[in-house]
Amino acid sequence: MNTITVSANQKTSSAKSSVNVSLMPDARTPFRFLTSITGLLPDGKHLIRPLDVVVEYDGGEFLVSEPQFHIHTAGTTLKEALEEFKYVLADELDELTTDEEELGPRLQAELQYLRSFIRMA
Predict the structure, then answer these.
(1) Tens digit of pLDDT for each residue in 45-66?
(2) Among 18, 53, 58, 87, who pairs with 30 as Cys (CB 3.0-4.6 Å)?
(3) Distance CA 22, CA 99 (A)
């Protein structure tokens, strides 16, 4: 069931009114939004600037994906999906760095892209 909560307080004309709406997803309520991730990554790495990711919810699962190179993960909770995504980013950087000499143009571009966001702590 969808949950919508509306709270409005009427005050004098000089005071602000507010409306808060929250939508709790369920299997029948797919949605998609853009957000940014920041902070620490596994293995002593960290994001040096925010990285935009797309979050989708459908069928009881959260999918987090990076739109430039389609790096993605999934989880049963948003927190789980975001944490897994950070792990995958760090791992992808390590793998591409290890194979750097053999990479084709697309993977070289992905490596440079990841390096523009990720540094050692």
Answers:
(1) 999 999 999 999 988 899 999 9
(2) 58
(3) 45
Count other Cβ atoms within 10 Å, centred on residue 113. Answer: 17
Q: How far is CA 34 from CA 1, 27, 69, 85, 88, in A?
A: 24, 20, 15, 14, 19
Report d(CA 25, CA 2) in Å as an integer: 7
Contacts of 41 (CB under 8 A, 6+ apart): 47, 86, 87, 89, 90, 118
Q: pLDDT per residue over 3-47, tens digit each?
A: 434 344 444 444 444 444 444 555 556 789 999 999 999 999 999
- Three-state secondary-structure class, residue 42: coil
